[in-house]
Amino acid sequence: MTLLHWTRRAALAAGMASALALGAGAPAAAQTPPGVLIVGQIAEPKALDPAAVTAVNDFRILMNVYDGLVRYADGTLEVEPALATDWEISDDGTEYTFTLREGVSFHDGSPFNAEAVVFNFERMLDEDHPYHDTGPFPLAFFFSAVDSVEAVDDMTVKFTLNEPYAPFLSNLAYPTGLIVSPAAVEEHGAEFGRNPSGTGPFTFVEWRSNEAVVIERNPDYWDGAPELEAVVFRPITDANTRTAEMLAGGIDLMVEVPPVALSEFEGEQFTIHEQAGPHVWFLILNTKEGPFADKLVRQAANYAVDKRALVEDVLEGTAEIAAGPIPPAFAWAYDDSLEPYPHDPERARELLAEAGVENPEVTFYVTEGGSGMLDPVAMGTAIQADLEEVGFDVSIETYEWNTFLGEVNPGLEGKADMAEMAWMTNDPDTLPFLTLRTEAWPDAGGFNSGYYSNPEVDELLEAARVATDQDERAELYKQVQQIVQEDAPWVFVANWKQNAVTGASVENFALQPSFFLLLDDVVKE
Amino acid sequence: MGSYILRRLVSAIPVLFGITVIVFAIMALIPGDPATAILGSYATPENVEKLNRDLGLDRPAVARYFIWLGNMLTGDFGTSFSLNRPVLDEILERFGATLILAGTSFVLCALFGVLAGVVSAANQYGWADKAITFAVLLGISIPSFFLGMLMILAFAVERRWFPVSGMYAIYGGGGLGDLLRHLVMPATALAVVATGVVARLSRSAMLEVLRQDFIRTARAKGVHERRVIWRHALRAAMVSIIPVLGIQAGFVLSGAVYIEIVFQWPGVGRMLVDAILTRDILLVQGGVVFVAACYVLFNIVVDVAQSLLDPRIKT
User: Fold this and answer.
1) pLDDT in tens, B200-223
2) Residue B234: which domain range?
3) Is the CB of A237 less than 8 angstroms away from the CB of B261?
4) What pTM does this model have?
C-alpha cells in the first residue's frame, strides 16, 4: 500500500531527526561541573527565613547560609561557640550574657552586632515589633522562656529568662535561633524569605521556583571560606526519581535514600553515609484505660515486638533498636547501661498470664507516612503479627498523616489502645517533657496522648529543666530513662539512622547527628 | 454564532460557582489543618490555635468562604501558607509548565492517534491494522506513571539519552533545545494512553464513514485512494473525532499530575498534590478553580469548533 509506505518512511525520518537533535548532546547533560555540588532535596523549601520554617528539608539549606550564636560541634550534639565567642550564665540560671564575635558582616554588608541579635529575637517574640508581621513564626515558642533581650554594649547581648530553662543553649543552636540580617529584613519585608541574608559560609544567589536554590561560596567567612564554589539544591519529591537522578549523575548528593534503594548504590562510584540521630520511633500505649492500663501488659508488648526484625528486615538496617525514651545521639544524657527489651514471646505470654488477661483486644492507629515515621504501614503490620503471636488481638486503623495527628494528638482515650509515633528533637529535654509528664496530658496542651503519669518522672524532668550544669542534667535524665523503661508507657522500637549517598567526585562529606547538612568542608573534584 | 458563544460563556458561571463551593467544602471538611501540618510534632493545641489566628483561620467557615470568593473576584487568590507567596503568581508560573507538557502530549495524541486510526481503518484486518490494534491495546493498558518510570530507567539511567527529570538543566540550562530534551519522555509517557483512545475511536469513526455512499461515489469517479481517505473520509469523520479530542485534552491535563510527579515537572499538578499534603488550603482552592475554569473554557472552544465544522449542530 502506498499509504502505509509513505507513513512508515515519514515516521522513520521523524524519529531519526528527533533522535539526532535531542539525543546526540544528551550524555553531557548528566555531568555536573566541578566545584558545584548538586543536592537532591525532598521538597521545595517554604522560605529561607530561619524563624519562619519548621521542616528539616528547609534547615538543610539554612544551616549553610546562616550562623547562630552557638552551634553543635562537628559530629556531636554538644553546643560550641559560633557568632558568640563566649557566654556566662547567672547562678540562678535566668540570665545568659553572650560576647559576640568581632568583625563579622552579613552577606549584604551590614555589620553583625548586639543590635542585630536583639532585632532577631524581638522580631520573633514581640508582637509589637515593626517586623513581627514578616512571620508567622511557628517555632517561636522555642524561646518562650525569654523575657527580654538587650544590647549591653555593641558586642555584648544579655537574655533574661522568666524561669531557668536548661535547653535554651541548644535551642539557640537550632535553626530557629539562626541570625538574619536586620537590614535585609527591613529592605525586603515579607519577601525576606526569598531574599535571605545571613553570615554563613555560603551566600544566597537565586531561587528558581520549583527548580533550584543556588548558593555560592562566601570568601570572607569568619570560620574559613568553604571549598566548594557553589551548591545547588534541587527539590525532587518522588523518591524513585531522586534515586534515578543519583544513578544517572544528575545530582551529587542525595538525602533520605529509601531503604529499598540502598542496594543500588553499593558500587564504587557511590558512597553511602549513615548517622544515627536524635530520633525515636515508638508506640504510644493508652495507660488510662483498656489492657495497657496494666504495666505488666505494657511490658508484655515490649517483649513481644521483634525489634531486630523491624530494623533489619523492614527498615533494611536504616535504624537501630531503641532502648528507652531518649535517643543515644544525645551521648551526654544517654544511659549506656540501658538494655532494650529483648524479643521474648515466652516472657510476654507469662506476663499476660500474670496480669490475668487473655487475648486482650487492642485498636492500633497506624499512619500512611509522615515526618520521621520511616515505613509505618509495613512496621505496623509486622508489629501486629508479633503481638498476635503472644495472644493479643490487634485491629489496625490507618490514617493519612495530618488526619492521624488530628486523631492522636488530642489523646487516645475512647478511641485506641496504641498508636505509632516518631519524634526528632534537638535537646534530650524536649521529648520527655512534652510527652511523658502528667502536666503534658493533651487537655493541658501537651503530647502525652497515652496519659502516662509518674510523679517521680515529673519531678526529675522539672529538676533537669532548671539545672544549668550539664552533668547534673545528665544524671537526672539517666534516672528518667530507667524509670520510664520499667514503666513502659511506650513500646520503644527504633532510632533512625539518617542516610545519604554521594557520588565519586565528592569528598569530606559527613552527616551530622543533628540531621543538619553542613557543606563548608565538602570538596568536589 | 456570537450569541451562541456568549450563551455558553454565561452558562459557565454557575458551573464555576458550584466548583468554588465544592472545593471549599472539601478543604473545610477533610481532617487535618494547615497549622498541624506546619507544626508537625510541635502541634500543641496552644501552638495550633495561635498559628491558626496568625493565618486567619480562626473565623467561621462561611465567613472565610465569602472573603475568599470576594477576594478572588478582584483577582486576589490569597497567599500560600506552604510557599509564602501569592497563590496566583504560583499558579500562573506553574500553569505555563503544565501547558507545555499537556499541550505537547495533546498534539502528539491528536496527531499519532488520528494517523494510527486512519491507517488502521484504511487497512482493515490487514497486518498494519492488527499491529496498530495490538499496540493501542498495550498503550491503553499501561498506567502512564509506570511507563514514565520504565522510560527513566531505560533512557536516562541505563542509556543516558535524556535527562531524568526537571524542565531545564540545572546548570547552564535554558533555551528551546534544552526544554525539548527534557520534554520528550514526560510528553510521550503522558500521550500514550490518550493516543490509544484517539486511535481506537478514529478507526471506528473512519470505518463508519468509509462504508457510506459518497465514498463509493468518489472511488467510482476515480479519485486517488489517498485523496479519498485523507480528504473525503477523514473530513467527515472529524465531526465525531473532535469531541473525543476534547475529552482527551481534559485527560492529559489531569494525567499530567502523575507525570509531573514522576518527572519532577514544575507544573500545576505537582503543586496541587504537594498543597493537599501540606493542607495549603488557599493554594488547593485557587489551583482547582483555575484548572476547572480552563477546562470549562476549553470545552466551550471544542463545542464551538464542532458547530463550525458541522452545520447540523444547532447554535
Assistant:
1) 999 999 999 998 899 889 889 888
2) 87-314
3) yes
4) 0.83
